[in-house]
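[step 3/7] inverse_fold.run input=structure_tokens len=441
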């Protein structure tokens, strides 16, 4: 597993300070909790467990971290040097609250004062860009301290803005980590697809993932039969049957892979009236994914990727309603440059998910490819090949597989991170029968 060097975290803080200065902010306050830890993890290497945490970044000196009882030790062991404040208000209900000063006192000590401009980083950017999505007790304290002559405003876009947020443009070390993560998640999903058999329970099938303890970016998802249509559920005790709908998704920090289809060897195992499953759903879907892959390059506009999917899969039958592709980081979905008419250009260093999900709502159920890629210009590719040669060799092997075996030709900027890139068996009991482009579709 590639380790992010301490210097990278220090550089990230300095880049944040430059953005603060450009916006005229005196301090940036970053909120985090167990579910939404990616921004603080990105900046410091520390992610809170059980509790919330608050990071305060000023123009100089070490950042300050406010933590509760149980995160005190972890925060002190983070790669980035931080001044720690115990704020027991962040601790779990009923835990001791007798050893810390108030939040307002600590924030005042960190330079948040009347008349100051404070940017607050949550984890969403709302439509108007002004709403703040962190708990009220934090915003209330900041507003009371800064007073009528100061301001407290959203600064989440500094971290996750789809065009140039700090977290959507990755350094070499972070890209190497994402590739490592994707190698694990994609190989795990491949084991499920290759090993699933009727008679297994869902819990038995999920063991094929062989989760190795790396922090999850989402719950493990594996379901068969009627529950599979809900997509997001965790495995249960139901035995998997021939002809079942099936879906599996596995995400750890930096990567997620998903496949879906039918537990079948061929059309004869499918429910009545959908014997044309491949022609009606899988073939047009695969052709759209192949064109989407082929259109990727540094400088491509997000609206072009959206148009490909709208043109090929715009019929309401396919049920495409989420953005077809998004950015990924430690969290599974950061933001997306892909949308109708989007003028946002894909940039070197972006890590992206191929994530085009049909939801037919019919007996045809769905089919799905979800894999990770990165975009890298020539200079970034050369640096990656020099510093992480094994990563580079795996990437090139995947590119050759996609072109030589699947018929999907990629621009030089596109780095596939998945070990099953665009691999799509329509019938999961025949994992050796997969969709390919023949040059005619």
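[step 3/7] decode complete -> sequence:
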């Amino acid at each position: 597993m590639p380790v992010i060097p301490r210097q990278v975290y220090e550089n990230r803080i300095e880049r944040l300070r430059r953005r603060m200065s450009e916006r005229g902010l005196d301090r940036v306050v970053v909120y985090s909790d167990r579910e939404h830890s990616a921004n603080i993890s990105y900046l410091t290497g520390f992610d809170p467990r059980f509790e919330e945490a608050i990071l305060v970044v000023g123009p100089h000196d070490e950042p300050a971290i406010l933590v509760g009882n149980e995160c005190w030790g972890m925060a002190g062991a983070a790669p980035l040097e931080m001044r720690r404040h115990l704020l027991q208000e962040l601790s779990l209900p009923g835990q001791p609250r007798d050893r810390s000063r108030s939040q307002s006192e600590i924030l005042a000590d960190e330079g948040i004062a009347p008349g100051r401009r404070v940017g607050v980083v949550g984890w969403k950017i709302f439509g108007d860009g002004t709403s703040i999505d962190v708990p009220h007790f934090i915003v209330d304290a900041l507003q009371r301290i800064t007073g009528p002559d100061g301001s407290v405003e959203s600064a989440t876009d500094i971290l996750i803005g789809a065009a140039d947020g700090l977290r959507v443009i990755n350094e070499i070390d972070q890209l190497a980590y994402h590739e490592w993560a994707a190698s694990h998640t994609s190989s795990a999903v491949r084991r499920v697809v290759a090993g699933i058999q009727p008679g297994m329970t869902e819990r038995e099938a999920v063991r094929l993932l062989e989760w190795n303890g790396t922090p999850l970016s989402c719950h493990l998802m594996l379901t068969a039969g009627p529950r599979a249509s809900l997509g997001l559920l965790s495995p249960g005790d139901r035995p998997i049957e021939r002809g079942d709908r099936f879906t599996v998704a596995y995400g750890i920090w930096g990567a997620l892979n998903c496949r879906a289809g039918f537990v079948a060897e061929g059309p004869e195992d499918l429910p009545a009236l959908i014997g044309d499953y491949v022609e009606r759903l899988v073939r047009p879907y695969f052709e759209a994914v192949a064109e989407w892959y082929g259109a990727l390059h540094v400088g491509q506009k997000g609206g072009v990727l959206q148009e490909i999917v709208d043109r090929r899969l715009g019929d309401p039958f396919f049920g495409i309603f989420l953005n077809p592709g998004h950015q990924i980081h430690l969290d599974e979905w950061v933001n997306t440059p892909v949308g109708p008419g989007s003028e946002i250009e894909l940039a070197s260093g972006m890590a992206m998910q191929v994530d085009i999900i049909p939801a037919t709502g019919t007996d045809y159920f769905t089919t799905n490819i979800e894999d990770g890629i990165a975009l890298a210009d020539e200079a970034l590719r050369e640096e990656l090949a020099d510093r992480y040669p094994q990563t580079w060799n795996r990437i090139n092997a995947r590119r050759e597989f996609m072109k030589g075996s699947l018929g999907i030709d990629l621009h030089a900027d596109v780095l596939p991170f998945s070990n099953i890139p665009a691999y799509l068996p329509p019938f999961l009991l025949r994992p050796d029968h997969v969709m390919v482009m023949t040059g005619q579709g």
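[step 4/7] annotate
The radius of gyration is 23 Å.
The longest helix spans residues 172-195.
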